[in-house]
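Supplementary notes (optional reading)

For those who missed the lab, this is the record we used. Protein: ABC transporter domain-containing protein. Length: 302 residues.
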Amino acid sequence: MPALSVTGLKKNYGSFSVLDDLNLQIEKGSIHGLVGLNGSGKTTTIECILGLQAFNSGSITALGQSPKQLHLTKGKLVAIFDSPSLHPNLTVRQCLQHALLLCEKPTRSAPDVEKLLGVSRFSDFKIKNLSLGNKRRTSIAQALLGDPEFVVLDEPFNGLDAEGVDDVLELISTLNRDHGTTFLLSSHQLPYLEQICSHIAILHQGKISHSDTISNLLGSTQTTLQIKTPEIEAASKVLEKIPGVELLSIDADGYLNISISDSDSIAINQALVENKIPVAELILKRASLAGLFREITSGDAR
């Protein structure tokens, strides 16, 4: 049984369709990223999954329960939203102690999760006096008092400095590796998602247009090479003879764009030089999640 199954999800705000026949499946033990343009419906999707929004049609099960029955998971599913929901006048320790009262079977103590999230020194600070990053750390600490099987994080990297991002990435990796915790991460920070996720789902025009492992998604994306040379015609003739090289275009700045599969940039540069073709610049652009995302969503204003 998957951790999450969404089938045929439709959600309208009045006459405006936000989600239109959205399908998504997340396997247990995966780290699944959810990406989309601003206003594409990422947060709406998460709210429908969690039972915080009614939807027009479709079906959702998370850990085997419908959104209206998620209380039956007894803390096995937790969610942390972009804006931390913590009482501003309680201290970090008081927030955690309060959460412990609501946790049926806590597996970690308040000091344990404070240490885990690096907020021990802020234990006696009121929430209203914390930075956004430390509020987010406290929210995650609160969610980890139990032993959740499925964690939903909405924009988990917002407000964090470089060290904080590294800490969160390490925490996600550790929980996934050591405890098999499943994650759904909704974020605009594509490089971080590419670094940590096993799978990516791209939400576009109300549907999940692509959902697969990172390796499969990027495997279908071209690695390109930009070459700057005053002898474009001669260079093109040389490049056409190299296996695995495909000529793509000559852009407005005079760069010769090629895709490469079986050849590397060193061999291509060497072939040009051996044919006495001067090379002013050689820029390798590897396949990336950001590049794939731009390719899928380019030209769409929605």
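If you only remember one thing from this example: The first strand starts at residue 4 and ends at 13.
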